[in-house]
Amino acid sequence: MIVYYSYAVLLIEFEMNTSFSLQAIGSLNPDIVVNSINSQLTMLVLTFPRLRIVWNSSPYEAASIFTELKRDAAEPDIDRAVAMGQGDSSVEKESIYASHPIALLQSLQGVTLRNYQALANKFKSISDICAASKDDLVSVLGMEAAIKLYEFIRNSSAN
Question: How are the residues of the chain apportioned to helix, strand and coil, as percentages rounded to the nearest 5?
């Protein structure tokens, strides 16, 4: 959604007539934990800063929230929306079909919209990138970006 829209919306619906919380306030963990919903939401917001999260307790409430959000906006142009999805750019197609790996790759320090494809073409996996020497990264990314990525990988794995 981020490719085509100014803002993406994540709708989280919880059960009506029940108290809602992600977890008890005393059990909040200051570290990122893979299976923690709080950590996952944090990573989503950090990775996609334009992401908006909408919380609601029923499909009816969701409909009324979206109606209110859309109130002064024009109706979507169907022809334009279809045309956006039929672009010839390989970057657009990759963004549609493999958004998670690309988003992960682009979230690494030193990796940009301009150089991530060269990195993806050279290395077959994230673990290959992590195992790469500084010289290998320099040959793909250039000195400045390669040093940022190399130091990020080495410092992250040391912690």
Answer: 55, 10, 40
CA trace torsion 20, 5, 98, 112 (10° rounding): -110
pTM recorded for the entire structure: 0.45
Cβ–Cβ < 8 Å for 52, 9: yes
User: How many CB atoms lie under 10 A from the CB of residue 102?
Assistant: 19
Q: Is 146 exposed, middle or buried (0-12, 13-18, 19+ CB in 10 A)?
A: buried
pLDDT digits (tens, 9 = 90+) for 70-118: 888 887 778 877 776 665 444 444 444 456 777 788 888 888 878 888 8
127: left (phi over 0), alpha (psi -120 to 50) or beta: alpha
